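Every protein is a chain of amino acids, and every chain bends into a shape of its own. Below is the pair of lines this work produces for a single protein:
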Amino acid sequence: MKRAQPSFLNAIESSVDRRRRPRPISRIRLETLLADDRQSCVSLPQGSTMPHADAVLDEVFGDQYEPEGAVMEPKEEETVKVCLRLRPYTKMGGRMSFKIKENTLIARCQGENLSSSEKHYTFSNVFEDNVSQAEVYDCCIRPTIRPTLGEPGATFLTYGTSGSGKTYTLLGNEGQPGIVPRSIEQIYEELYDHISTEPSLKMECMKPIPLSDESVLDELRKLRTIKTRLGQGCEESQALISDIIQSQHQFQPLDMGDKRVFIWISFVEIYNENVYDLLNLDGDYGCKRKPMKVLSNDGNAYIKGLSTLYAGTKEDAYNLLQYGLQSATYGATDVNSNSSRSHSIFTVTVITHSVSTQRISQSVYKFCDLAGSERLKKTGTFGDRLKEAQKINTSLLVLGRCLETVHKNQKTKKIHDLVPVRDSKLTMIIQSALLGKEPMTMIVNVYPTEEFYDENLNVLNFSSIAKQIVISKQPKIMKAPHSTRYSFFLSQAMGSPSSKIDTNQLLVEYENLKQENDRLIAEAEQKNAEIDCLQKKLVIQEFQLRNELTDNFQQHFANMEESFQLRIQSAQELAILPFKHQMASLEKKLKSKEQTIMEMEDEQDDYERKLKAYEEELNKYRLQQSRVRRLSV
């Protein structure tokens, strides 16, 4: 049989190697299997039997290999959860007529034909205007917050027109807290026994980094600074909100074994397509803020230089939330007297560290308060408010385009278009949720009035697209970073409820380590002093060596100059010698010529004397002749 030639046009399938041999979908590390086997053996209770080997292999390899020719059973796809909430309408008349049938909203405008204006929209949940904040949270948010399972987190959006109740749903008020305070209560109450009091572990650029003791003190100092700036009046309101939420939900602590939890919080706003840090402690109040850059690492967006502060207690989380809200941008329009003029994103990062397995998982929960879509004719904006409305509508338009493109790409196997997440700062930050990599919950707020019929229709159409996006869950587990900092792991062991080491023994060991650390620090200081002394000696020796080299080079150059002067002098003498002979001969010739000239001058003088004598004789002769002529006459 002739061997098939490789084709460069039709690529080989990913499940077949170069020799056409089937291979597993993902690799299996034998060390991991052995570790899991040992852990399963240790955790068996007394009196229980070991499972059969085939059952263990099926459990381990069931998800790792895909048998050839087998047909995978279709799994139920999880889509984006989109919930509808109607704002109470108190005015008489002008209400947009609607009917709720299970989770479907049937909306039509009064005064038009029923068949032409009736619209059907299906949601995960529909909340009428009499539904409380607690019911909304229990249905939409509470099942999604599961940091103990190692999931990547979730993104929560409140979307709607201006004045539809988005900020109220997200934040609420002192009597009716929103989903953000309730989420804070759920996270801190369920993880109460496992939250570390010190910020020993942090995520920077999507990588876990243990913090030094100086960094830990700096983070705690930032929390004290924020608490000082807020004052003492906020503690009573925070306690009241906490009591209200706990009475409505009764959150209970969860058993997480030896896991330790670190909670970090950041708060940003997107104002006029610029990202600003709301928890920045460096800038003064009222000064011009500096926009920040949004970067991406393996499809995960992060903001360069963002202030991420540690919240060891829920009081710290409330303080950070309140401090950030004081710096957010609000403004008055014809529709809403306290309208959000920016998109704000409150992020809670839950880092879980297992002491026994040294595994680290991260869950990031983003709470996005989107600014309301506006029509300039109804809001009456102008000047700065007009510019803000244009930027808000543009970012929301890009968000709709992203959702539409993702939905179109998920319907077919062939990708038609690239998702334009880079066209807006909002879509760049929440791109993981838009691309279906993490759960996303959208609460659509609608103000059911005939006046906002067109705006509400656009909002409902937008939500219908988001409802069809499929979420692919890919939990991300990271290996703990290698570090020699004993204080980090000692704090984990002391705070772990499953630790069986005596606390007194740990404290004694801690004191011994501190003494050893002090001794090593003293030795290091002594070594540093010796190094400084040696460096000074080295500088002196180097100075002396440079002087010696300088003197030697100066002497060498002086000798070279003297020798060259002698060579130049001898060369000059040799070059002048033939000219000296020529000068001597020329001088002799010159003397002879001068002698000749002198002789000629003497001869000339003689000739001149003779000439004068002849002239005198001639004159005498002429006188005689004249006398003779006179006498003859």
